[in-house]
Amino acid sequence: xxxxxxxxxxxxxxxxxxxxxxxxxxxxxxxxxxxxxxxxxxxxxxxxxxxxxxxxxxxxxxxxxxxxxxxxxxxxxxxxxxxxxxxxxxxxxxxxxxxxxxxxxxxxxxxxxxxxxxxxxxxxxxxxxxxxxxxxxxxxxxxxxxxxxxxxxxxxxxxxxxxxxxxxxxxxxxxxxxxxxxxxxxxxxxxxxxxxxxxxxxxxxxxxxxxxxxxxxxxxxxxxxxxxxxxxxxxxxxxxxxxxxxxxxxxxxxxxxxxxxxxxxxxxxxxxxxxxxxxxxxxxxxxxxxxxxxxxxxxxxxxxxxxxxxxxxxxxxxxxxxxxxxxxxxxxxxxxxxxxxxxxxxxxxxxxxxxxxxxxxxxxxxxxxxxxxxxxxxxxxxxxxxxxxxxxxxxxxxxxxxxxxxxxxxxxxxxxxxxxxxxxxxxxxxxxxxxxxxxxxxxxxxxxxxxxxxxxxxxxxxxxx
Length: 465
Known about the structure:
This protein is mainly alpha-helical. It has a single domain (6-319, 329-464), classed as MFS general substrate transporter like domains (Growth Hormone, Chain: A). It has helices at residues 11-33, 39-46, 50-66, 68-78, 80-99, 104-118, 120-132, 138-167, 171-190, 204-214, 217-221, 233-237, 246-278, 282-287, 290-318, 345-366, 373-399, 404-433, 435-464. Helix 3 (50-66) runs antiparallel to helix 18 (404-433), helix 7 (120-132) packs across helix 18 (404-433) and helix 8 (138-167) runs antiparallel to helix 15. The radius of gyration is 22 Å and the shape is globular. The protein starts with 10 loop residues before the first helix and ends with a helix.
């Protein structure tokens, strides 16, 4: 163990690194949801339908899911820091392209480019946390990353609704380009490399870490290979191999279903339905997202800190003396099995179901007059979504922590693919079936694809690992 090992970094350095990476991750979903409150304006500007305008959101969601398959192996070889910095520069360029796009297709292309380059942190955050923080505090810090990913969705339309009304929706892209530039400057000087190979450390690794920590300008510009292992095609598809690992695919699929109904449905339907149904302008549509922000923050307190306390409490019961701690800081044989954490996820699943039902049923009862009750349902669903997000992600990482970055990429891929597919079918479902039958469909899907599978993995997970 040396000072180059991220486990030995001072606490403030770890926190600064996490904040920069978590904010970068938030900018991924923030970029996707930035246009949620201006579907009507985009449709009018380019002469397309509101549903076609909503594809500006779902397109980026899809790219955010697939792009980390490319970035993951490259960051394993050359480190997290250069990939994060490159992604910010290219995202800046992509946002400028969106701002000056003359047509719908050009803007869609630039949105896809931006989504591709802003994506690394949205999947690699779990790897950065695992490389930096000990197991006993991991859920809390993974929770910081996951809450930022979640908050990007409601915060973007809340801010940009005001921007659109006052200076026009194209300024959404200019502002995001400015933010990317500020991120790059802060990251260039403050972001440290968390990729570190223990046991057999290549000679270049300490040199890189020392130079970055030394803050000399020349060394900050240097990019060196950390892992000498040659790249192969398998490296780019390896995260998908977790489809054969029940302890990853089941929580990933369960979480993705909750994310679809308790996050994506709320975001897309609020942006496309509320202007038409209630006559709200972009500013008013953006304000509806406050409930999602408040709910997500409450959910993170329960999903992150509560689940860490839950695991600590169980360990305290398991041991009479102090826990044995290995070189990684993980607990010895007295530590509870990862499946014990899943108990905290069940209230989240039930809250997500309750919130989605309230949202859809109250929309049906509202008629053409806006009232706050559907938004209360959205807030309840957001609490449940964030609990499930943190618990499911932490469980999967704990099961295969040596492959934490790949697990994060796979979970991101499953979540984003469901998020991409959803907007192509649930608007038609709500239109054809109605709000109340749609609430029944949502309940059936959440119980069948999330609740029951989570019970099964808690029962059999230990034997599957």
